[in-house]
Write a structure and sequence with these properties.
Largest sheet: 8 strands, mixed
Structural class: alpha+beta
Helix content: 40-55%
Strand order of the largest sheet: 2-3-1-5-4-9-10-11
Number of helices: 11
Number of strands: 11
């Protein structure tokens, strides 16, 4: 580990020196590239410097405590030595986590798809609750939300919603949300007060830059249809064929967008959604080829995998992958997800560390 850390320090020094040269200062592309690389490794270097500072203090105390005659001073030195020895293992663990390979998608924006599952109207209402939960979380983070597709049903629920969230590290925070979410509660229409179980599926896709992926798609592989926007009325009803549906013929993936009045904007949004789905499909293919990678994941993100239960009578949310329970259901559904996200991230990091150690 320390050999790797010394290499990171050396790279940090090289990048700092390069950013001070006229050649780099006059090249915007290089400037951005080197600054990004420097920002990524700076936290590692800072933590390593903190570790080395404590280690030096410890070595100094150990060297001088032998010759110290004053009993009071010696007791103080022993106390300080014990404090440092307690801190060092935690710092070493933090350094190991910082050295873990980064998920290349962590800094990407996300596209989230939510669909009502088993449970009829109640499933659609729950899908609507999940949509509000994620948008409230995004608002707390001051991230931008953009709706791509929104299909309501009469009872006030959501049959399907697709939306993007743009913000620093959005994918790193929301990537563990893919899977089946289960709700246990008494529906408003249930006269006998019986608890019903319903589900909704969530898929979180890393949003890809069109420039990155557009070249990989042959226009002849796309079937693009336009149609008239539907909806409950108001601004979404359009007298022109502005809604767009794109079918990727080789995979059979279908995406659509009717949220914008402009056909061009709907086409752009639908295309971005398609690119993200194709990118995620390719990532999943690569992940499934490497068995060890599967073991590192908190969950595969498969829609058939039940990842979490929202139990209203008990006021709890339980994540089944990490056996973690939060009891503030109302706050959680209002977007207070940080505790659960932190627990999932910590678990995933621990699994990766275990795998490396093994």
């Amino acid at each position: 580990m320390f050999g790797k850390l010394d290499e990171v320090v050396k790279r940090h020094e090289e990048l700092t020196a390069l950013l001070g040269t006229i050649e780099v200062a006059s090249d915007t592309k290089k400037m951005i590239e080197y600054n990004k690389a420097l920002n990524e490794i700076t936290p590692i270097v800072e933590k390593y410097n903190e570790y080395k500072s404590y280690k030096e203090d410890l070595d100094f105390i150990k060297e001088n405590i032998k010759s110290e005659k004053d009993h009071e001073m010696k007791a103080m030195m022993q106390e300080e030595m014990a404090e440092i020895e307690e801190k060092l293992p935690d710092l070493e663990n933090e350094l190991r986590i910082l050295l873990l390979p980064k998920d290349p998608n962590d800094n990407r924006n996300v596209i989230i798809e939510i669909r009502g599952g088993a449970g009829g109207d109640e499933a659609a209402l729950f899908a609507g609750d999940l949509y509000r939960m994620y948008t409230r979380y995004a608002e707390r983070k001051r991230w931008k939300i953009d709706v791509i597709e929104f299909q309501e049903i009469g009872v006030g629920g959501v049959k399907e919603v697709v939306f993007s969230i743009s913000g620093q590290g959005a994918y790193s925070k929301l990537k563990y949300e893919s899977g089946v979410h289960r709700v246990q509660r008494v529906p408003e229409t249930e006269a006998a007060g019986r608890v019903h179980t319903s589900t909704a599926t969530v898929a979180v896709l890393p949003e890809v830059d069109e420039v990155e992926q557009i070249q990989s798609i042959n226009p002849s592989e796309l079937k693009i249809d336009t149609y008239r926007s539907g909806g409950a009325g108001g601004q979404h009803v359009n007298m022109t064929d502005s809604a767009v549906r794109i079918t990727h013929l080789p995979t059979g993936i279908v995406v659509q967008c009717q949220d914008e009045r402009s056909q061009l904007k709907n086409r752009e949004k639908a295309m971005k959604h398609l690119l993200s789905k194709l990118y995620e499909m390719e990532c999943e293919k690569q992940r499934s080829q490497v068995e060890s990678e599967r073991k590192l994941q908190v969950g595969s993100g498969a829609r058939s995998e039940k990842i979490r239960t929202y139990n209203f009578p008990q006021g709890r949310i339980t994540d089944h992958r990490i056996k973690y329970t939060v009891y503030q259901l109302e706050a959680f559904l209002d977007g207070d997800l940080e505790e659960m996200i932190d627990a999932l991230t910590t678990f995933d990091q621990a699994e990766k560390l275990k795998n490396i150690a093994g």
